[in-house]
Amino acid sequence: MSKWTLHTEFKFDAAHLIEGYDGKCGRMHGHSYRVHISAASRKLNPSKYLDSEDMVCDFRELKWAAKDAEKGGLDHSVLNEMLPCATTAERIAEYLHKETSKRIPDDIDLKVTVWETDNCWDRIYRRGLMFNPAETTKKPLQDKSYGVVKYPLMEDFYTIQGEGAHSGKAAYFIRTAGCDVNCWWCDVKESWDEDAHPEVAVDEIVGRAKQSGAPIAVITGGEPLLHDLDPLTNRLKEAGLQVHIETSGSSPLSGYLDWITLSPKRFKEPLDEIYSYVDELKVVVLKNKDIEWAEKNAEKCPDDTELLLQPEWDTPSSMDMIVDYVKQNPRWGISLQTHKFLGVR
Questions:
Q1: The pairing of beta strand 332-334 with beta strand 306-311
Q2: How far apart are the C-alpha atoms of 244 and 153, rounded to whole Å?
Q3: Is the dihedral of CA 176, 177, 180, 185 positive or negative?
Q4: Measuring CA to CA, which residue among 250, 282, 255, 259 is closest to residue 178?
Q5: What backbone torsions phi and psi does residue 271 show, to the nearest 5 degrees?
Q6: Could you count the other beta carbons within 10 Å of the beta carbon of residue 271?
Q7: Measured between alpha carbons, how far is residue 40 from residues 166, 258, 272, 295 in Å?
Q8: Which of 150, 236, 278, 343 sits CB 3.0–4.6 Å from 262 for a disulfide?
Q9: C-alpha 276: how far from its chain's center?
Q10: Is 169 buried (19+), middle (13-18) or exposed (0-12) by CB count in 10 A?
C-alpha cells in the first residue's frame, strides 16, 4: 500500500513569558520559532482548495501559524494572549498539533517539532496527545490517579544507553515485565513472565528516575506496549524527563513519547499503526533474510527515520555482512551493544 508523507517548515516571531517561572524565562522575551510539521497518510484526500482526492492535505493548512496574528496566525503575537495554556515549548507544540489537526482530514498522522532556539526543541505525536472521547473508548485516568497505577517491573536503573541513535547518553532504564514475542536471542528472558515480578506504583518508579538525575527515561522490556503506558509516561514527562521506548511494535501504541525505537521481529510482526511514529528502526541481524526484513520495515517508516542494523551479540559473523551492506546502502547505519563493551548494564 502506498504511503505519502508531507514535510513543511516555517518560522514565526513571537513574545512570551512563562508564568510562575523562577528565572529569566519568567520575564517577557521573544523567540524566532522554527516549526517542522510532517503529515503522513495511506490515502489521498480533497481539501477546501481542491475537490479531487489528490493530496494528503494542503500545505496552507499545515502552515497556518506562520500567518500574522491579525490574520489568524501566531507571527508577531504575544503567545500568552493567544494560547489557552502555558507557553513552554512543550505546550506550544501541543497547541500547534491540536489546532493543525482541526484543519486536516482525520486519517492523517501528524508530527510537530518546535525549535525555541537552535539547540532546544520539542516534538509531539498524534498518538497519546490527549484523551479524546471521539477517538477512543478508553476511560481516561484523572491526574491524581496516575501515581498509584502499578506496572509489573523487572528492574529499573541508571546507566548509559548502549544501543541505537542515543548510544552513549545517560539514561534511566525502566524494564517492564511481560513479553509475548520471546526472541530466542533475548538476553533478558527473565523479563518474559509478568507474574514473576512485583507490581510497582508509578510514583515510586518516577521518583527513582527523577532522583537519579537522568535526562532520559527508556522504557523497555519484555514488551512494554503490553501495558497502557499513559500513566507512567505522563508522570515521567511531568518530572521533566524525555521519554523513549524500545518496542517490537506488536501491541497497540500508548504513552506520551519523545522517541520511538522499533525493533521488529519476523515471527510477530509490528502492527501497522506504529510505523508513522517511528523515530528509529533498529533491526537485529543474524542472516541475509534479516536485512531483507529490515528493508521491508524501512519502506513503511517516515523518511526521516534513523535506520540501523545491529549484529546479534553471539553471531559475530553477521558483522562483515552488515558492514558490506551499509557501505553499499549508506542510508543505513550500524548499532553496536556498546554497554557490553563498557561493562555496564
A1: parallel
A2: 17
A3: positive
A4: 250
A5: -70, 145
A6: 13
A7: 25, 18, 13, 19
A8: 278
A9: 10
A10: middle
Global pTM exceeds 0.70: no
CB atoms within 10 A of CB 15: 15
The mean pLDDT of 223-241, rounded to a whole number, is: 91
Q: Per the structure block, which three cell numbers stand in for 48? A: 477546501
Beta bridge partners of 244: 218, 259
Q: Which of 142-151, 241-250, 257-266, 281-290 has the lowest mean pLDDT?
A: 142-151
Q: Which residues contact 65 (CB under 8 A, 6 or more apart)?
A: 10, 12, 35, 73, 74, 75, 96, 99, 100
Size of the chain in residues: 345
How would you classify the pairing of strands 4-16 and 150-160? unpaired
Q: What is the pLDDT of residues 288-313, one digit of tens each?
A: 899 999 999 999 998 889 999 998 86
- R_g (Cα) of the chain, nearest Å: 21
